[in-house]
Amino acid sequence: MDENLYKLNLDYLIVAQSLIFSGSEQKAMFCLGLTTEAVSLLRKMPLAQLKSLARSDCLTFVPRFNPHKWSKFLTVEKDEDPNALDARTIDLLMLLSAHPPES
């Protein structure tokens, strides 16, 4: 099993469960793409079960990439400051989290 995949899955599941426990089910559904069924299941899962689920050999979630929103991020200028990548990453994440997934 890929350790990076495990960490990515576990982080996602912990964030989802944290939002649910804080009473932000709607935010978890909107920002993370959870269904009402997933919210119900995650509410009941202990950490050991989350870790077991995270160990699967595939993502436990579906990335919601939109190529139109990624175009600015993927365009790299030759003379660009390396620190600009961090700022662009934050901008992209803010942009992606502000819009629902597109079909």
Automatic annotation (TrEMBL):
Question: Would the keyword Transcription be found if you checked this record's keyword annotation?
Answer: yes
Gene Ontology biological-process annotations:
bacterial-type flagellum assembly; positive regulation of DNA-templated transcription
Q: Can you name one GO molecular function term for this protein?
A: DNA binding
What does the UniProt keyword field contain?
Activator, Bacterial flagellum biogenesis, Cytoplasm, Disulfide bond, DNA-binding, Transcription, Transcription regulation
InterPro entries attached here? Flagellar_FlhD, FlhD_sf
Record has DNA-binding as a keyword: yes
Residue stretches in coiled coil: none
Span-the-membrane segments of this chain are none
The record's section on Pfam families has: FlhD (PF05247)
Superkingdom field:
Bacteria
What this protein is reported to do is described as: Functions in complex with FlhC as a master transcriptional regulator that regulates transcription of several flagellar and non-flagellar operons by binding to their promoter region. Activates expression of class 2 flagellar genes, including fliA, which is a flagellum-specific sigma factor that turns on the class 3 genes. Also regulates genes whose products function in a variety of physiological pathways.
Name the UniProt record assigns to this protein: Transcriptional regulator
Species assigned in the record: Methylomonas koyamae
